[in-house]
Each structure stands twice: as structure tokens, then as C-alpha cells.
Amino acid sequence: MKIRSGYVSNSSSASFLVSYHNSLKGEKRLKIISKLIMLGFEETTAFYPDQYIKGDEKEITEDMRKDLNRDYSFFKINYGKSVSVNEFDVHSDLIKNKIPYIASCHYDQYVVKYDGKKVTVAINYGTLMLMGLLNNDLYRYDEDIYGKPVVEKTPNKFLKEGY
After folding, report:
1. Which of 60, 92, 54 is nearest to 76 (CA)?
2. Left, alpha or beta for 33 (phi > 0: left; psi -120 to 50: alpha)?
């Protein structure tokens, strides 16, 4: 049985996206891709987390793969993963492996970006408004309830405290 201490998220949804690294070559690139696949990530053409839906991906053809090597290519292969429970396990795995990512978390209420050095958490104001979680007096954002709209944290502090 796994016992967790610190911040635990048991009921939410999150979509994670790791950008394709054209700048990474050879063994380093293969190592990161192998780790992502081991963590359950899949190739995707999505370019932001909300676009990624597991199993709803078109096939990536060989012509698309060839196009990746062109400087002007619009097409990119990224790696995506969606979870409906324990999203912090995915945050932890990516941060501990120093793999930069972006994620849409907790029913899209938060956007998380890890750049390899720091974690930036931004509250999605529009989603809070749509969910009726904001004060209806001009949809005022209340820092006393939700905290600062954008916060930067060290990876360790983020993994310990959460959002």
C-alpha cells in the first residue's frame, strides 16, 4: 500500500503536455521520450493541454514525421497524458525527472508550467467564472479566497504545498 504525505489530490482531472524538443538530439532526446512513454505519455499533435484527449488522437503518419525535420514545419509531435485522479503523481514524476511541461489542472481551474527550474501556477479566471465560483458583483476575483492569480514556486515547494 502506498502512503502519501504532503499535498494529495484524489479527485480532479488534469491534462499534461510535454513539448517536442527539436533542439534535443540523439541519446538525450531518446532518454526523455523513453521516460515519457514509461510514465504513460502518448504522442499527440495537440499543442496545449486542453486539446489532448486520450484515445482521440489521429494517427501520426510517416509523412508527418518527415515534415518535422523541416525548419518551416508547422506540425509538431508532443507527448500528452490525461488523468482523473492523483494528478500530483504526474507533476512529481515530471519534476523529479526535470522534464518541462504545461498542464491544465483541477477541472481547468489552474494552469501549471514547469520550465525545468521553477513552477508557475496561474488561476484560470474564465473557468472560475463559468463554474460560478466568483463573486457575481462584476465577477470580482477574491484573493482572500483563491490566493494570488499567478504564483511562482520552487519545484520542491510546489510538490509539498500544491497550488
Report:
1. 60
2. alpha
pTM: 0.74
Cell readout for 41 is 505519455
- Domain residue extents for the chain: 14-161
- Residue 89: what pLDDT? 92
Q: How far apart are CA 71 and CA 22, in angstroms?
A: 10
CB of 105 closer than 8 Å to CB of 120: no
pLDDT at 47: 73
Q: Are 86 and 2 in contact (CB under 8 A)?
A: no
Over 50: is that where the pLDDT of 3 sits?
no
CA count, 13 A, side-chain hemisphere, 75: 14
**Average pLDDT over every residue of 75-93:** 84
Rg (CA), the chain: 17
Nearest of 96, 109, 103 to residue 155 by alpha carbon = 96
